[in-house]
Amino acid sequence: MLAYPYLCSVKLIIDIGNTVAKLVAFDGQKPVEEVKTQGDTLAALDVFVKRYKFQRGIVSTVRDLALAAKAQLEKLDFPMLYFTPDTSVPVKNRYRTPRTLGADRLAAVVGASTLQPGRDLLIIDAGTCITYDVIDAQGNYWGGNIAPGMHMRLTSLHEHTARLPLVSAEGVVPGMGYDTETAIRSGVLRGMKYEIEGYIRSMRMKYPSLVIFLTGGDKINFDARVKNIILADEYIVPRGLNRILDYNYE
Questions:
Q1: pLDDT digits (tens, 9 = 90+) for 176-213
Q2: Strand partners, 11
Q3: How far is CA 147 from the centre of its chain?
Q4: Whether residue 40 sits in one domain with residue 110
Q5: Domain boundaries, position 230
């Protein structure tokens, strides 16, 4: 039985990241269900596709598809669009090396501009890495920056020093650490917070009406003043892929 039997034209969005893959069912522009699975095997895909009557889909990946994942995709009985640097997108990509641009970054930009068209946007994706990407009100994507993510920072402090321990991101985060554990955790988490706030301040000087989107798996605790200018949306990348899929079928 279909999970949503009344949905007859559902689209499958597959976003394969560095660590996990997201399977999202979209009804028009609305996400109706998301499942996370292993990116190298897409183990949950077989069960997920039986829950809806998918008409078409799109797959995006930031790494090479594993053989097991390819095998899963080849089983599908509806057309899948593979998002590549040659795929048409509804924005003007001004990135100087488009073939080296992460698919998730471009999809996030498209997703944000779909929700806030005609606005200057800063998209911050806090995942394995933190990415900062800018698209202006005229639909020009100019690029952005890449920095280490939360767990990458915590791990590198342990692996690239002789005695610093591997510290969990969970726990107290004082203003100034009072032991080695809190010094590392506060240094990483508060450092990320100040870094992101610095990007926001800097970009708002160039784009006074800037709208900021925050997405990704890592949660950052911002001050109330900063929260007021941020739109949080966990579906920014899938929304962008969904828009790209529609754009290529229009």
A1: 999 999 999 999 999 999 999 999 999 999 999 999 99
A2: 26, 56
A3: 14
A4: no
A5: 89-250
